Here is the input.
Amino acid sequence: MKIALITGATSGIGMATAKLFAAKGYKLILCGRRTERLNELKNELNTEVHTLTFDVRNREDVFKALESIPTEFKDIDILLNNAGNAHGLSSIQNGNLDDWDAMMDGNVKGLLYVTKAILPNMIARNSGFIVNIGSVAAKEVYPNGNVYCASKHAVDALSKSMRVDLAGHNIRVAAIHPGAVETEFSEVRFKGDTEKAAGVYQGFDALQAQDIAEIIEFITSRPGHVNIEDLVVYPTAQANTTTLTRK
Ligand code: NDP
Ligand code: 8X3
Here is the structure.
C-alpha cells in the first residue's frame, strides 16, 4: 500500500487529492495549520490517516512534526508539496512586506524544509515521488503578481534542480502548474474578501481542485520508468495569465 504525505490538505487541491488517494487505498499523512479540518477529513476518509499540524514557514516545527511520524507511516512513497498561497495583488512599489515574507517563506522555503525532512528516507530506500505544485505564475509574470510569481518561478527552478540532484536515486520529481482553480486561493489572496474572491471565477468554467487531483493521481500512478516532469494546465477559457474569456 502506498503512503502519501500531502501538505495543504485542509483545502482545495490538497484536500481533493487526499480524498482521491484515500479512494485508491493509500495511507495518508495529512498536513496543514487548521487542526479541526484535518480531524474532520481524517474522520471522513476510509483509510489510515495520520495528521500533522504545522506551519511550513516555521523551520523547527516542520522538522519536529515530520520527525514525529509513526514508524508505520515513515516510508513515504509520494510527497505532494502543495501548501502555498498568494497574499495580496499589488504593484512592486506598493507591495506589503508581510505579504512578501508569507509568500517567499511559505511557497519556497516551506517547500524546501518539508522536502529536506522527507528526502533522507526516500534516498535510503532508493524510491520516491515528489510532486511540486507550481502555477502558471511559475512560467509567466502578470501585472501585480510580482512576488507570488517569483515564489512560483522558484518552485519551477527547484523542481528542475531536484530532478538533476536526485538523478540516480530513483526518485521521480514532477511539477504541475495550474491556471485558475476555484478554491480558497483567492479568498486568501484578497484577505477574506469573499465577494472579490468569487469574482475571480465568474463568467467562465474555472478548473476545480478535483481536476488537478486527478492529474496528480495519474502522474503518480505511471509505471516506474515513466516520469511526467512538467505540466501546465489551464481552464479552456484561459489562454495565459492575462488572457481570459468570460461569458
Ligand atoms: P487553498 O487556499 O484552497 O489551499 C491552500 C492550502 O495550503 C491549505 O490547505 C492551507 O492550509 C495550506 N497552507 C497555506 N499556507 C500554509 C502554511 N504557511 N503552512 C502550512 N500550510 C499552509 O488553495 P489551493 O488549493 O488552490 O492551493 C494549493 C496550491 O496550488 C498552492 O501552492 C497554490 O499556490 C497553488 N495554485 C493554486 C491555483 C489556484 O488558482 N487556486 C493555481 C495555481 C497554483 P492551512 O490554511 O490549514 O494551513
Ligand atoms: C494561481 C494562478 O494566475 O492567480 O497560481 O497566479 S494565478
